[in-house]
Amino acid sequence: MKIIAIVNQKGGVGKTVTAVNLAVGLAREGKKVIAIDFDAQGSLTVSLGYSEQDKMDTTVSTVLEKIIEDKPIAPDEGILHHEEGIDLLPANIELSGLEVTLVNTMSRECVLREYLKTISNSYDIAVIDCSPSLGMLTINALTAADEVIIPVQAQYLSIKGMEQLFRTIGRVRKQLNPNLQIGGVLITMADLRTNYTKDIISLLHNSYGRKIKIFDSVIPLSVRAAEMSAEGKSIYLHDPNGKVSIAYKGFIKEVG
């Protein structure tokens, strides 16, 4: 099972929209995919149509607590089956409490990795939607992942914040997960009509293009992407012929 973490400590850069459309897009290509919500706000869970996430009895927190306490986990425990052909391990506010618990846990960075080993034979790909921070949950995701995809909004401050993320990835690679790769940077929410956006994209390529893959697909700014989250559907169902859908289809081909 290949594990892809969608990471950026800055909020509002299109992480969850990217996680939904990456997971569903890969499933449409015939892959068996599980999406894992690793944000206490439960954005991925809500975006896939499960709006009452705080009433859920079993979530990612439940199974990780069982890993910490060395209790058995049922093969399908907590996993929801979405109509678009992916599975989801949901999250809710309980994940905030788990982050506090992890601080005093042995091998605290490896708890998610241990859980993913238990389901690795059931899926081709896991897509982890991380919280907008570089705390213990995100470190767990990076320790478990084979690859990181970094969505970046076409704005100067978004690019400025990437240095800190690269340092964190470097530390995780050195100390916890030597196989961790940066799959690439995905430019999101880009208003391609403006010179400002074009300048930011050029700055990104000039600053990082030699060291890190920057996906050719650029996700345009569109109200359709915001509507998608409220509908509980991927962009492929919500607006199949729209520019965001076409851009994500191109991105899926690049991810492979």
UniProtKB/TrEMBL annotation:
The residue stretches assigned to a coiled coil in this entry are: none
* Family, per entry: Belongs to the ParA family.
Q: Where are the transmembrane segments?
A: none
User: InterPro entries from the entry?
Assistant: AAA_dom, DNA_Partitioning_ATPase, P-loop_NTPase
Gene that encodes it? soj_3
MF term (GO), any: ATP hydrolysis activity
Q: Which residues form the AAA domain?
A: 1-182
Query: What is known about its subunit structure?
Result: Dimerizes in the presence of ATP but not ADP; ATP-binding is required for double-stranded (ds)DNA-binding. Interacts with DnaA.
Reaction(s) the record says it catalyses: ATP + H2O = ADP + phosphate + H(+)
Q: Which domain of life is it from?
A: Bacteria
Assigned keywords, A-Z = Hydrolase
Instruction: Kindly provide the name given to this protein in its UniProt entry.
Output: Sporulation initiation inhibitor protein Soj
